[in-house]
Write a structure and sequence with these properties.
Order of helices and strands: HEEEHHH
Largest sheet: 3 strands, antiparallel
Structural class: alpha+beta
Distance between the termini: 45 Å
Radius of gyration: 14 Å
Number of helices: 4
Helix content: 40-55%
Oligomer: single chain
Strand content: 15-25%
Number of strands: 3
Strand order of the largest sheet: 1-2-3
Length: 144
């Protein structure tokens, strides 16, 4: 294993063990569940949206380290972003995971999320990594 792989694993474990934006918002504007029935990963996003901006975002859930770390990374990336910017970050992340978009072309906000690129070596786990991002996309559709 090379040093980059080891650093990425440590980053994923850090987000899994100490998730950012974990919990439920008291008065969310949108609550969106997400699940991967094939493996049992589940999460729920709660969002506060003010003037076209993701003012606050939190998640709860359970599942594998990849799905939960990805949710933590996603909430970090989109926190207090305009909805259009959040949608662009979702598209960029999914392009990396599903269309082999090079990581060096991704925006700075996705720095931690780049560590999930290695998941592509295990196609069955890609759904774990994109679950939170797809759930946020569904939540944002409800705000339009």
């Amino acid at each position: 294993m090379d040093i980059a792989d080891e650093l990425y694993r440590e980053l994923i474990l850090d987000h899994y063990k100490s998730p950012r934006h974990s919990g439920k918002l008291e008065h969310p504007d949108v609550v969106q569940p997400g699940a991967n029935p094939l493996c049992g990963d589940e999460l729920e996003l709660s969002l506060v949206i003010k003037e076209g901006k993701l003012q606050d975002i939190k998640f709860t859930g359970h599942g594998c380290s990849i799905s939960q770390a990805s949710a933590s990374m996603m909430t970090d990336a989109v926190y207090q972003k305009n909805i259009s910017d959040a949608q662009k970050l979702i598209a960029d992340f999914k392009a990396m995971m599903l269309e082999n978009k090079p990581v060096d072309t991704l925006p700075e906000e996705l720095e931690d999320a780049k560590s999930l690129e290695g998941v592509k070596k295990y196609p069955v786990r890609i759904k774990c990594a994109v679950l939170a991002w797809n759930t946020l996309l569904e939540a944002l559709k409800r705000t339009a």
